[in-house]
């Protein structure tokens, strides 16, 4: 079949075609200093350890968080969705705040399924906005909230309530008063136009609603009580008065303001969330929204007594957790990504096999292929999903399906039917999220055994391997203080880290098919996951498209 000219890739001048390439993504496998909380270091991982001997020519580190994967700041942890987007697309696409800005500027945010869903409540019920009131741009932005309120009012929302969380962490302490005044002035204009719009509740971000990593569910409960039940220890007629008064308390600051509700002249809360209402959480950053989203969305919930669980239409600004599909509805869809490396390679005759177990199968297919389902050419591709264990926590069976993934990849390589065999091995991430250090060590060992199985197959067919990761997790399982020492909670107990990290991830190339002189370049300032696509295209014998992030490799003459 002739390749359409738009898709034809130039041949690489120095690298041959026809080598079988195994492309291995270890999920949640970052690089960190060895200590007792580094589960990768503490696991027997001879296959991965052996690769470091090739540093810096065939083993190096690349960025997998922040701007390297399209997120707004270097404080933004990578995740599996943006990581696989970058790995497959070969370019950095706006994620997070940038994506929201584009959707708001174009008005697309109001045309999507998420907004249509919440707008079904506009006629007879209330639209609630919940989030961090700040212009810090780390978790949310005030200007985005104002545009959401305006757009909703213009599209039929008659009754709007805003539940604010004061900042003082990403912005100056005390700046909350100005932000509340700005929001109040904006809502007053809507009231002049006949919209019943007001602030309904509030509290400080570190004390109300915005906990993360299941650190303290009481924080979420305080927010729930104020926002849903309309109950809080402090009641005020307006939010400016509330914040100014509460800030006068000894030791008070924006981050830790106690919860408050706004009440009418009869002392009744003006905006509890009730059956039939719509709720939008307007933070774009995920980490401090996941717990709150679970409370709003999960019918089966045991973290605290919700007292009542209103039947609402809930959407997040974005989907905060792609693995949990949480929330189910969201206002801003993932980026529209075209011309992915997978599509190019299939158009150029590269026969592709992709495999993982259920929890990461979508990452090695859907997210890799630019948030697109299905095959590009089913004659040249085969995608295999191995069912994940269900009904148990992953630390109960920490080996997960690593060996089955390794076997499927091995068989695909040895079959001679495929030019690229791509897998995601999820253990480091999925077991790491449980916070069980011993189980995560077992998980890392199992992942390494799968890697060894794939390396052995590549050896037999004289192929090439590329092994990397999508973000960190298992390499650092403890929260740390500012000096880098393990952090303790109020009772003096170690604080286990269950989240992703900001650490770089390894990438290694090798195998008998790797041409002589191929090595990692030293001239790239901060290479990241998006540089991997061009690298893999080169190893397949092609030059990557001109707008792709540059390849990580060069061919030395001597």
TrEMBL record:
Where, per UniProt, does this protein localize? Cytoplasm
Q: Catalytic positions?
A: 80
**What does the entry list as the binding residues for Mn(2+) 1?**
429, 433, 500
Q: What is its EC number?
A: 5.4.2.12
- In what residue span(s) does the Metalloenzyme domain sit? 19-542
Query: What is an annotated GO biological process for this record, any one?
Result: response to blue light
Q: Which cofactor does it need?
A: Mn(2+)
> What pathway annotation does it carry?
Carbohydrate degradation; glycolysis; pyruvate from D-glyceraldehyde 3-phosphate: step 3/5
Q: Name one GO cellular component term.
A: cytoplasm
Positions contributing to Mn(2+) 2 binding: 27, 80, 470-471
On the tree of life, the source organism's domain of life is Eukaryota
Q: Which GO terms describe its molecular function?
A: manganese ion binding; phosphoglycerate mutase activity
Protein family according to the UniProt entry: Belongs to the BPG-independent phosphoglycerate mutase family.
User: Which protein are we looking at?
Assistant: phosphoglycerate mutase (2,3-diphosphoglycerate-independent)
